[in-house]
Structure formats: C-alpha cells, structure tokens
Amino acid sequence: MVLGRLYIVNGIWYMKMFWFIFCQDDLLLQKTGEGMFTIPMGEEPPVVLKAWNTVHNITPMDDGTLVKTVRVDNPITSLEGYEMCPLRQSYYKLPRELYLKAGKCHEILYWDQNTKFCGVCGAPMKLETDISKRCTGCGKEVWPQLATAVIVLIHKGEDEVLLVRAKNFRSKHYGLVAGFVETGETLEEAVCREVSEEVGLKIANIRYFGSQPWPYPCGLMVGFNADYVSGEIKIQEEEITKGGWFRKDDLPEIPEKLSIARMLIDNWLKETL
Questions:
Q1: Are the C-beta atoms of 240 and 199 separated by less than 8 Å?
Q2: Tens-digit pLDDT profile for residues 80-118
Q3: Which of 134, 158, 259, 266 is the most exposed place for a label (fewest CB within 10 A)?
Q4: Residues forming a β-bridge with 37
Q5: Alpha-carbon distance 217 to 29, whole Å?
Q6: Quick check: helix, strand or coil at residue 133?
Q7: 6: which DSSP letter?
Q8: Percentages (nearest 5) of helix, strand, coil residues in the chain
Q9: Are 21 and 27 in contact (CB under 8 A)?
Q10: How far apart are CA 63 and CA 260, in angstroms?
Q11: Using 50, 70 and 90 to split pLDDT, how confident is the model at 1?
Q12: Pairing relation of β-strands 219-230 and 147-156?
C-alpha cells in the first residue's frame, strides 16, 4: 500500500525514495519481471556506498517520491534482480518520467565531478545547496551549466527535407543540421548560422518546434522547422560527411526515437500523410 511519500511492506512503513545509481554513464536498473524495469526504491540504496560516494538530493517526483543519486566506482554486476544499463538505452526500458529524471541525475553528477575546485583561486568547492557550490577559499558560487544547442529540419517545398550525416555519428543514420548557440546570438540567429556553415544554404520562416533535455552530458536541444530559400548544398567537411534532400518514401536510416531530431522527422511524416 502506498500513501504519499510512504509505502508499506509486510506491515512495515518505509519512506518512498528512488535511488539513481550510476557508474560512469551506466545506470542501475531493477528488474520487475517480463522484461520490465524500474529504478531501485528504498530508504537505503541496494548497494553499500563508500565514504567518498557523495549522495545528491534531486527534485522529487511529481507524486512526492524522494529522489537521490550517487556515482559508484565500479559496475554492479553481482546483484541479483538488477542490471547496469547505458543511460541512452534506458529510454527503451524505463517509464518516460523515470528516464527524464535519470537524465537530470546524470547531469548533476557530471557537474559535481567537474567542479571539484574553484576556477578562480583553485580551492576546493563545497556543496552549498542541492544545485549550488561555494568555494572554500574565495567564496565564488557555481551552479550546473547547460550547453544550449539548436537543431533544425529544413523543408524544400512540401515533400522534401534536408538530412545530413555528421562525422561523429556512430551508426549509419542521417540526422539534422545542429550546433551550439554562441554567446551574443539568438536561437534563430544560431539556426541560420549553423545552416550556412554546415550546408551553405539560406533559410527563412524559422518556427519553434520544441525542446529536449539532452544529458549527454549536459545539453538542452531546441528544435525548429525552417523553409529553404536558396543555395546549393556545400558540405562543411570538418563536421558533415554527407547531406541531401529526401522524400518521405525514400528516407535513409534516421535517428532513434529518443531524440528530438526523430521527433521533428516523425512530425513531418505525420503532417504529410
């Protein structure tokens, strides 16, 4: 039985608390049977933590369930009923709300790992709140930082879109023009600049589609649609290997469903049916 932040097992009340436990980029999942998974829950973690394993408090779930996250030193391989899973692949195993929370936990752990010392005076940093640190020397405060990027689906007429294959893609799929926002520019300016730099095209009618946290390791992807105006495709060879216009009945391999690139493509396919 569950009541608020409490649940009862064999007549004993326990605090509802999810434990998001990472080793590098792998997340500990608990098997629930029939190929289903969840995040371990309990007042204590299912593994013994070391004194140096810092536990972080994360914003609770919508139902009030508390959330804690910690990074351990070694993969957990001998715990019956559990398995380690790469964060990206956990998208296909966890309920959406747990996958999104896992992403936030991963970002906090990444931030903690990369802000051990002050960037001004070099002294050790100390947690001030759940999402801030203060330098023990000069008092400088830091918070988790986001790397904001834009991504755009470019439409040519009613039945063609531009897809590109980036050099850093591990599989053979094609994606969309994307890149990080630079200091001093708007999101729309970043879209135009990235399109010009990567494929040499001019676009117009830039339309906001949606955004997506991208915890690999600390990004925010902002998606747009735009219309082709002019130019011939000229690939920026440092970042792009291939690119071209594709119709819906002749698409190459496209990104997996967890990405906003796929959401943009799927939305276009739905609108053109």
A1: yes
A2: 999 999 999 999 999 999 999 999 999 999 999 999 999
A3: 158
A4: 31
A5: 20
A6: strand
A7: E
A8: 20, 40, 40
A9: yes
A10: 27
A11: very low
A12: parallel
